[in-house]
Amino acid sequence: MAYSTLPVTVTYGTGLAGLAFTWLLTGGMAYWAVRNKNFVQHREWMIRSYVITCAFTTFRLVYNILTINFHTPEGPTAEIMAWACWAFPLLITEAFLQASKIQRASKALAKKKESNKTHVTITTVSADKSTI
To answer: For the segment 5-18, what is each residue's pLDDT rounded down to a tens digit?
Structure first.
């Protein structure tokens, strides 16, 4: 069994507990959506779940860059990364998911406005009294 040389603090522990809870929540919501045949919601929750699943890799990658390249202290860096490895990527992902919804709604509204335009053509018939 490997032992960590990092001090386990409340900040570090709650960050990882939040990661675990969020991973279970996103996976559970994706499962619930697919069980209800809501495939659009299932897709979105699976994207979130994938981002959370990659948090362990994000933690290790950014942690090593900060401690090795920038010589930051290991303890505080681990505490920050326990939260930052999943919170920031999830926030960015959520912004992209919501932006795509806004863009789709905007396109649908524009299409609806375009189809609602009625083209009325008025033809005038002039009658000359001298020919009647």
So the answer is: 666 899 999 999 99
State how many domains the chain has: 1
Question: Cα angle vertex 55, ends 53, 57, to 5°?
Answer: 100
42: containing domain: 10-131
DSSP secondary structure code for residue 72 in this structure: -
- 68 domain-assigned: yes
In a domain, 2, yes or no: no
**Count of beta carbons in the 10 Å neighbourhood of residue 72:** 16
Q: Extract the tokens encoding 109.
A: 């509204």
Looking up tokens 């806004």, which residue turns up? 102
Compute the 3-state secondary structure of the chain and give helix, strand, coil in percent, each to the nearest 5. 75, 0, 25
User: Coil, helix or strand for 83?
Assistant: helix
* pTM (two decimals): 0.79
